[in-house]
Amino acid sequence: MEQKKNNLTRRSFVKGSSLAAGGIILTPSLLTATPIFNKVKKLKLAVVGCGGRGTGAVSQALKADENVELVAMADAFEDRLEKAYTSLTKMFQTGKLNVKASHKFVGFGSYKKAIDAADVVILTTPPGFRPKHFEYAISQGKHVFMEKPVATDVAGIKKVLEAAKAAKAKNLNVVVGLQRHYQASYIETYNRIKKGDIGQIVSGQVYWNGSGVWVRPRKANQTEMEYQMRNWYYFNWICGDHILEQHIHNIDVANWFIGGYPIKATGTGGREVRKGKDHGHIFDHHVVEFEYENGAIISSQCRHQPGTKHRVDESFQGTLGTSYNHGGSTAVLKKYDGTKIYNHNSEDDINPYQQEHNRLFKSIRNGEVINDAEFGAKSTMTAIMGRMATYSGKEITWDKAMALDHKLVPDEDTLTFDSVPPIVPDENGNYPVPVPGKTNFI
Known about the structure:
Shape: globular
CATH superfamily of the largest domain: Dihydrodipicolinate Reductase, domain 2
Organism: Jejuia spongiicola
CATH architecture of the largest domain: 2-Layer Sandwich
Radius of gyration: 21 Å
Domain Gfo/Idh/MocA-like oxidoreductase N-terminal: 44-169
Largest sheet: 9 strands, mixed
Structural class: alpha/beta
Number of strands: 17
Domain GFO/IDH/MocA-like oxidoreductase: 191-305
CATH class of the largest domain: Alpha Beta
CATH topology of the largest domain: Dihydrodipicolinate Reductase, domain 2
Pfam family, one: GFO_IDH_MocA_C3
Strand order of the largest sheet: 15-14-13-12-8-11-10-9-17
Number of domains: 2
Protein name: Gfo/Idh/MocA family oxidoreductase
C-alpha cells in the first residue's frame, strides 16, 4: 500500500467520466471518420466465448438488425462452440448463420482469427480474458459488444481504459452488458434523480442476494487448467468472484445515479456454506460500504447461500425523497411524506438485453458512437475495490488500489491446457482461501 502512486488517481480517473444514461456519445457522421453502414450492407458478426451468454448475445444481435450475419465463432472448447452453433441453427434460418467449418476457431488465442473475420464482435468469454480481447478488437477497428465485468484485476482495468481511449479516437461503438443503462425504468429514474426529484443522494443500499450458480465437478483426465476453465466461476483470475460477476450490476447503478465513483471501501465477507473443493477459493458473501466524495454512503450486499432471502434491487435516499428499482422493471420515487413522484409502468418496455443490441446496431448504421467502455471499466474497478476490502479486512482507497501492481491473469497467447494456472490446489485438493487480516490484495 506504500507503493508510489501512478498517474491514475481517482480524481483524474473520474474527471470527464461519461455517466449519462448508457454513456452514449452521439457523433454526427459527417464530423467523424466512422463509415456509415447503409441498411442493405451485410454486417459480419463474430462471437468470442460460446457459453450461454454468448449464445444469447448472438441471438439478440441477429434480431437487432435485418442485415447482420454470424460468420465466425471462437471458444477454448470445441464442444461448447458446437453446442452454441447447434442452438443458433434452431433459432435462425440460413442467411443469418454463415459460419463455415474453417471459421470455427478453438483453443487459447483463437479470438484473433474470429475478430479478424468480422465487422462487429461479441466478447463473452469468462471476464479474465476480456481486456486482451477488447484491446485486440479495437486495434483492428471493430465495433464491440462485451459482457460485464470487463476485467478481474487492476492490470486489466488499465488495459480496458487505454483501449477505450483508442475506441473513442477511432469512433468505434462499444456497448457493455450493464443492461440497466438500456432499461426504461432505470433510465427514467436516472433522469428524474438528475433533475433533482429526490434531491442529492446521501445513502443507498444495493443487493444481489441469492442461492448461487452452477458448479461443474472435476472429471477424470482433466488437467488443472481445463478443470478451472470449465469451472471458471470459482477462480478469481478468470471470474473475479461473484461481487464482480453478478453484483457489479447493482454497484454500477449506485455509481451511475450518484454521478461518481467511491473514494474508499471497507467490508467483510467469507465462506460459510459454499466451501467444497469444487467451489474454488471465492467467497459466498460480501458486505461492503462504499464512501463517495460527496459524502454519500452505499451499503452493498451480495450472497450465494441456498435457502436464504433472495433480493436483487437498489434503494437510494436523497435529501428530498427516495428511489427504488428492481431489475424486473419496477421503479418508484417518492417524497418522505409518502407522496409518489413516479411509478414506472413496464407494459411497453423493451427487454434491456435486446435493447443493448438494438442501440448498438442502430448507432453503427447511422454513423453515431456509443462508448460504454469507460464507465464499464470504472464500475468493474469499484467491484474489485470491494473485493479487496472483503478479502483483506482493510480500508481500501481508490487511489492506492489503482496504484497497485495487481495482475491475476497470465497472457492467454502463452497458455495451453497443460499450463499451470495462477492458483493450484494443495495435496488434499483444497485451494487457498483469502483470510481477512492476513490476505493482501488478490
